[in-house]
Amino acid sequence: xxxxxxxxxxxxxxxxxxxxxxxxxxxxxxxxxxxxxxxxxxxxxxxxxxxxxxxxxxxxxxxxxxxxxxxxxxxxxxxxxxxxxxxxxxxxxxxxxxxxxxxxxxxxxxxxxxxxxxxxxxxxxxxxxxxxxxxxxxxxxxxxxxxxxxxxxxxxxxxxxxxxxxxxxxxxxxxxxxxxxxxxxxxxxxxxxxxxxxxxxxxxxxxxxxxxxxxxxxxxxxxxxxxxxxxxxxxxxxxxxxxxxxxxxxxxx
Length: 253
Description:
By secondary structure, this protein is α+β, with helices and mostly antiparallel strands. The protein contains seven helices and 14 strands. It is about 25% helix and about 30% strand. The radius of gyration is 18 Å and the shape is globular.
C-alpha cells in the first residue's frame, strides 16, 4: 500500500504490536513518527508513520491514553503549522471516559501555537442516520465535542461494510475553514474497515514544499480472501531475490 499510494503520512489503529515489536518494525522510506502500544490488552494501539524526507516531532500524549477506553498518539509536522493525531476507541470502552479524555487531548493541542489539528481515527461511533437511542446519543455527544474545536468529519461514506451491516465509524477530522482538502475511502484488503485518504489541496507552507497526503487504515484478520487477491497481482521477484529477511520484508512493503 505504501508503494502504490506513497502517502506522506499514514496512520494506523489496532496494530496489535507491543513495545518490543514496535521497535523492530521497519517500513522502507518511512520513519515511525509515534506509537502507542497497549500493555494490558492483546490488541488495540495507534501509530503514525512519516516519510523519511519530512521533519517531525513526536508528542508525548500518553497521559491521555486509557487502555480499553481511548488509545492515541500524535506528532508535530515541523514544516507545517500542523499536528496529526491518531485515535482508537475500543467498541466496548466507556464512552463517557472517551469523550472527556478526547476533549482534554484536543484542548492540549489546540492551545499550542494556533496550529491546525488533524485527527485520524477509528472511533467506533456510527455517524449514519436512523440509529437507535444509544447510538444516536453517542453520535450527538461526539459531534458536539468536535464542534467545540471547529473540527469537521470529512469522511461521508461508510467505512465498515459487512453482509449485515454498513457503518461510518472511522473518520478524519480537520478545520475546513483553515484547510481545503479532498477525501476518499477505498479498500485495502487488510481489514474489514476501508481506509480513508485525505489530500490537502491548499495549505500555507512555512518552509519547504511537501504536499501532505495522509492515509488511515485499520488492521485486523478479516477480509483474508480480498487480501489474497491483492497478493496474487503482485510480483515476487524482488522478494525471492532478497539476501535476508529484512530486505525481503522491505521489498514486500
